[in-house]
Amino acid sequence: MSKIDVEMLLHMNAADHEISYANNSSLQKQVILKIRPIIEESITDAFKKIVPICMKVADLGCSSGPNTFMAIWHIIDIVHEICQQEQLKLPEFEVLLNDLPENDFNFVFKLFPTKSLHFVHSSYGIHWLSKVPVGLKENKGNIYMARSSPPSVFKAYADQFQKDFTNFLSLRSEEIMPQGGMVLTCVGRKNPNPSKEDYGWEPLSKSLLDLVAEGVVKEADVDSFNIPHYTPCKEEIAEIVKREGSFDMKRLQVFKVNDSAVVSREEQLHNQDLDFNVYLEMGKKTANIMRAVSEPLLCSHFGDAIMDNLFTRLATHFADGHSNLKFDKVITIVVSLTKKGNSL
Ligand SMILES: C[S@@+](CC[C@H](N)C(=O)[O-])C[C@H]1O[C@@H](n2cnc3c(N)ncnc32)[C@H](O)[C@@H]1O
């Protein structure tokens, strides 16, 4: 999938879709709720250096659904609180909500003069790559990095993320004013060694291979499909921020989020005798979260006729390996950055 294809095809399932992102984004909502104190810290620090008349804020990769305005409401609320405490006049707000298509954060914004943004937020956007990495021919039977992938696959993914994230930082450094803040979250991994991790996409590869066995999908189509997404470790984020050089890193944290729609692992352990149907119900919820974010990409490659069958199988695989319902705990990285330089 080329850069142009990804730009056009990458989006979450629309609100009128049966399995919409809007109805399957409670995990991402937990992330936004969890990082509110970090946003508060970043904005409070920025306000010590810049008290804007009009505060310019951007949310990059905002999608459409209940989360779209949530981060922006938090930001406005935090500024309200600061202004009340410090007896400052409340600024006006100029807000940019950004998402694809043709509104790609891999470009500099045409709307804002340089060095004009006070605060940038992006939740669960930067782990999407601008294109499928080159060099994944050997990733046969997998649709993402997997424990069975050869080393060249891990390198190809890591190289593409390094390029995209470096580009992202240098574009934002043109838009954000000195001492302005930026808080980013993405799905991450614990282990610096990428071959040691279970990324959660393997049950989807397995479901596609089931359809190959049935003769519904061609093996070559599975071999040539790879998700344009990357799960970095915190060391990679720190290294890229340092090497790019435009931002000081105030905070870099790793945390886990639960999807409230999926029973947590602790609860499962206390309910060893759960009926298979309960696991199947949980499996469907987990499969729907995955479907809401990956269906447009899968449809473009495999066609939409197999989607119901594919995700029913995925739900069953999740239920079969019920101790492995990946979305009960998703590793998330948050990084809080300040643009270097003296405030204007
Ligand atoms: C998982 S959704 C997260 C949406 C929302 N921020 C939330 O937390 O619920 C990621 C969003 O980032 C968008 N995105 C990914 N790459 C992008 C890019 N290069 N430019 C603009 N948006 C992008 C996707 O289209 C998608 O809507």
Automatic annotation (TrEMBL):
It comes from the Eukaryota. One of its GO terms (molecular function) is methyltransferase activity. This is Uncharacterized protein.
